[in-house]
Amino acid sequence: MTINHIIESQQFTLPKLKELFERTEQMKKIVARGGTMDYSNKIMANLFYKPSTRTSFSFASAMLRLGGKVLSTEHASEFSSEIQGEMIEDTIRIIGNYCDAIVLRHIEEGGAKRAAAVSEVPIINAGDGSGGQHPTQALLDLYTIYNECKTLDGLSVAFIGALDNGRTVRSLAYLLAKYDRIKLYFIAPEEMQIKPDILEYLDKRNINYELSLSSKGILSKVDVVYQTRIDKERLKKKNVNFENYNIDTKVLQTMKYDAIIMHPLPRSVEISSEVDNDPRAAYFRQTKNGLYVRMALLTMLFDEN
Ligand code: CP
What we know:
Radius of gyration: 19 Å
Strand order of the largest sheet: 7-6-5-8-9
Structural class: alpha/beta
Low-confidence stretches: none
Mean pLDDT: 94
CATH architecture of the largest domain: 3-Layer(aba) Sandwich
Number of domains: 2
CATH class of the largest domain: Alpha Beta
Shape: globular
Largest sheet: 5 strands, parallel
Helix content: 25-40%
Bound molecules: phosphoric acid mono(formamide)ester
Number of strands: 9
């Protein structure tokens, strides 16, 4: 199976995920020795219509560590011809003339798919809309779980936060559903719960899951806590208790000693900074894995296209 564009996480088969993880291990070694010049003939374009710290920087760093070059516009809505009404299809056709891959964060759900439909170079979806997907985040998340837990089978994973617009959660749920004996918990206020399309996908694959209004009684039994952003003010207006959706030292005490806490970041108040020094806090290690996984993805695309 050849990957031409990276648009949705579910396009990755189990053999492809295995190959990605093997390449990721090689990338760690390459970074440790200061990088490579193997891809010095390649140019990657970062085209971000919405703000990003981790995704844009880690992709740029990944390309530079591989010896390639980077073109970028960080505020494409202002500093590209979109401001004059240029449609995404035209922008992609033009930028594709100048590079070998385009990393795209688009405002609209489906923006990456539209771009891929006309692009002559690989498109990498770096997040589309607020309820779309963020496949490269899910791939680095999956790698982090594998690296920390040493398996992907038989795990229980709790997702917490405003899950209705959680594109990282959506993408990761698709990937986890490929593994055996997975149990997923989706913890959110009713109106912010994961959307039905994901639950239908899980039902079709007989994946065991539960929806819950509170993390109480759940976090003590899971292997992975995947915390996401949740707006404290929005909860207050709806009279919803924030304590049901945050992680602080009190919550830490209830968790398994070998569980891990992840977050795609940026975080707000939903993980207290007192948690950062606990060895179970994996979210900064997760961001470092982003560099290695994105290097591996770029090599995969360049080697296959
Ligand atoms: N996790 C993530 O996508 O972060 P950025 O918005 O900083 O890229």
